[in-house]
# Entry
Amino acid sequence: MKQCWRWFGPADTVSLGDLHQVGVEGIVTALHHIPPGEVWGKSSIRERIEILSSQSLGWDVVESLPVSEDIKTKGPNYTAHIDAYLKSLENLASFGIKTVCYNFMPILDWTRTDLRARQSHGGTAMLFRLLDFAVFDLFILKRPGASTDYSQGQQEAAAEHYKSLTSDAKRDLQNNIIAGLPGANDTWTLEQVKVQLDRYKSIDASVLRQNLIDFLSAVTPTAERLGMRLCCHPDDPPFNLLGLPRVMSSTEDYAYILNEIDTHANGATLCTGSLGVASAFDPVSFVTRLGHRIHFAHLRNTKRLAGSDPERPDFFEAAHLEGDTDMVATIKSLMKEEARRRQSGREDWEIPMRPDHGQELLWDLTNNSMPGYPLIGRMRGLAELRGIMAAFGGADQHT
Ligand code: DNO
# Structure
């Protein structure tokens, strides 16, 4: 697998030059300053490529070319935003950039309630706790109808918990959830979330799934002609939040979408950390069933905690080899898939991966690292994942 690294552009706290010491082989980045729905112009793309190449690095994966809320909801700017998406794909392809990640989560991208939960080793990890989320939903956002999403017991526990929070803790919780974690398409205020929620009033899972299919029907012919690979990122966490539907939460969800739009240009980002929160998820069977359409892998581990709802478990981001996902088996199956691709002569045999997220460790704790994206924690993750890849001896071993 190609060992890539997510870099957020010139504002990133990690410098590109340092990545050589980490052993990074390729870069995952995006033009985060361009709002969803606008065209990524050639000069902006060229500028980013030049920054990377000045450090002898290339742009392997776009993460993400964001899909706007107007596309997800078929809002008034639908056609203009689809046209902009197509133009951005054309512009990226003109520089040879072929792999493009996106997600189809309504309003919120990845969601955590605590960005820095202290671990027994002294570092920190990110955490999702349904109780905290319920506090936000019921008492901070005060979403109409929210109570139907929580049992009587959960509502009472949330009310108690809310009373115990200081105003700083309430503000932090709100920011963690809606102010946008690194890489999220949008940052929202409470009022804006309410406006967005209104747009989803008549959108249930089947409508959202159809909107995803319509988006893919509109963009994959162009992607196919340009030899590009779109790869949808799963819902994180893989269950509904704020009463909104989520439609890319399981292997079945992927199988359905990949089958509906059955072209190589319509692929998957396998994110073990997102999908692995569901106890039913089996990464090896995901790779066995859908491996030929995996265009990008996020390798990360989560550990479920005893929460209040088995369908919406609490979890924290464990070290890369320590969570519920069997990372050794996952990497082995991905490397077998690479070997199959080589045998069949596929030019895109090598799957770009990145060590997704990391715990904050050592230097990270005092260096303002971005939530989920610290240097040392990710470096530890990459080193461990790389060790597994080396143990399997590269793709040649599997031919
Ligand atoms: C979080 C990321 C996500 C991901 C998007 C893809 O760390 O994995 O924000 O980039 O969902 O569009």
Q: What stands out?
A: The two ends are 15 Å apart (CA to CA). The first strand starts at residue 2 and ends at 6.
